[in-house]
Amino acid sequence: MISIVQLGTVDYATALRLQQSLVEMRKTGQIGDTLLLLEHSPAITLGRNAKRQHLLASPDLLEREGVEVFECDRGGDVTFHGPGQLVGYPIFDLREFQPKIGAVEFVRRMEQVLIRTCTDFGVATQPSPKLTGVWTSDAARPAKIAAIGVHISRGVTSHGFALNVNTDLRYFDLIVPCGISSRPVTSMRKELKQALPLGDVAKSVGRYFGEIFASDIQWTSTLDALFGRTVGVPLKIPEELRKLHAEQDVFLA
């Protein structure tokens, strides 16, 4: 069973603390596999492999644009999160799948979820043989429509994917997205020349998570409704997350 929680707009720092709380609950068996679906207020995130030179904007420009910057413990380089983007954070215990799922297979399955979702709305996409994420099916110059970066600790996943649905792509001018300067970034809105209801895209994502991970799906709108009580969120600053269980962790993007 995968429980899907739709959270609306959540600032990035809160999402980091929430993920860490849920990861610990998953490790101790207090919850089952859980997928958080949400939007973020504007934020640039630096993964464990991020290069500072890939953050192109000055602190003053970021402040004027209302964009926060965070270091985090996912794999990968620099990316942007913001309104109009569907972000998914699977908190899964990969050891409980039969057969057990490895890190690379987990990422490939998420790519397939997003590819099938894009297909539902008429956007042709594909994976890249050498790069993580989902790309438009443009042989001449494929554009990235979804980024993926994960952290796996003792078999339990966190972080996940960001699918550009109605995202304002001008924000990506502030960075070198995922450290790749040779390929553009796109959105479903740009490809279709119209905006899409984010809730409809979320439903498609949830359906394909159930199919591709061969699990039943349970939808809920709040964490309290899911767990029957308030979920405490430990007040850990983002930098501390980079130091947790380093010897056990896998970072992949």
How are the SSEs ordered, and which strands pair?
Layout: E1 2-9, H1 12-27, E2 33-39, E3 43-46, H2 59-65, E4 68-71, E5 78-81, E6 85-91, H3 103-120, E7 125-126, E8 134-136, E9 144-153, E10 156-164, H4 188-192, H5 198-212, E11 217-220, H6 223-227, H7 238-241, E12 249-252
Parallel strand pairs: 1-2, 1-11, 3-4
Antiparallel strand pairs: 2-6, 3-5, 6-10, 7-8, 8-9, 9-10, 9-12
Helix pairs in contact: 3-5
Describe this protein's structure.
This protein has 253 residues and is α+β, with helices and mostly antiparallel strands. It has a single domain (2-252), classed as Bira Bifunctional Protein, Domain 2 (BirA Bifunctional Protein, domain 2), CATH 3.30.930. 28% of the residues lie in helices and 26% in strands. The protein contains seven helices and twelve strands. The chain has helices spanning 12-27, 59-65, 103-120, 188-192, 198-212, 223-227, 238-241, and strands spanning 2-9, 33-39, 43-46, 68-71, 78-81, 85-91, 125-126, 134-136, 144-153, 156-164, 217-220, 249-252. Strands 1, 2, 6, 7, 8, 9, 10, 11 and 12 form a nine-stranded mixed beta sheet that branches. Strands 4-3-5 form a three-stranded mixed beta sheet, with no helix packed on it. A hairpin with a 2-residue loop joins strand 9 and strand 10. Helix 3 (103-120) crosses helix 5 (198-212). The longest helix is centred in the middle third of the chain and has 18 residues, at 103-120. The chain is globular. Mean pLDDT is 85; it is low at 229-247.
